[in-house]
UniProtKB/TrEMBL annotation:
Source species of the chain: Nyctereutes procyonoides
One term of GO molecular function: rRNA binding
Gene3D superfamilies: Ribosomal protein L6, alpha-beta domain
SUPFAM superfamilies, sorted: Ribosomal protein L6
Family stated for the protein in its record: Belongs to the universal ribosomal protein uL6 family.
UniProt name for this protein: Large ribosomal subunit protein uL6
Keywords of this entry: Ribonucleoprotein, Ribosomal protein
A GO cellular component annotation in the UniProt record: cytosolic large ribosomal subunit
Recorded superkingdom: Eukaryota
The keyword Thylakoid belongs to this UniProt entry's keyword annotation: no
Length: 155
């Protein structure tokens, strides 16, 4: 049976403006504006995707999204260096001399918390940028050529 019409609705707060033109969604709010484009390969499949992205963008504009990452090590302490506009540098991972660098995504704010030891906080209005940047940091510090059951180091 063919589906002729498919709809989903999103509740929009008063201080947020949404522009929808084709598969392009632009959400503007008091803190930032986010632009997303979704291709039109299968129209019915993109309805729920566009609905979910609009909902996540509204949540990102009203509330600031953040990821908390914690460095875990058994013997060699992992040292993280953050400078504005420069990459996040991870030093002394598994006692290696090599410095792992991950370039910051535009708009993502990265900071180290003082009360909690070895914890990174990544903040941004766009959930995809935050999760992508945290995944890149985690992938840069994966344990290679060792038994991962014993070497439980990383982020």
């Amino acid at each position: 049976m063919k589906v002729i019409l498919s709809r989903l609705s999103v509740n929009i707060p008063e201080n947020i403006n949404i522009t929808l033109k084709g598969c392009t969604v632009i959400v503007k709010g008091p803190r930032a504006s986010i632009y997303k484009w979704r291709g039109n390969r299968k129209e019915l499949a993109t309805v729920h995707t566009t609905h979910s992205h609009a909902h996540n963008m509204i949540k990102g504009i009203t509330l600031r999204l953040y990821h908390k990452m914690r460095s875990v090590y058994a013997h060699f302490p992992i040292h993280v260096v953050i400078q504005n506009g420069c990459p996040v540098e991870t030093e002394n991972f598994l006692g290696e001399k090599y410095i792992f660098r991950v370039w910051m995504r535009p708009g993502v704010a990265c900071s180290i918390t003082q009360p909690q030891k070895d914890e990174l906080i990544l903040e941004e209005s766009d959930s995809e940028l935050v999760s992508n940047f945290s995944a890149l940091i985690q992938q840069a510090t994966t344990v290679k050529n060792r038994d991962i059951r014993n070497f439980l180091n990383g982020f």
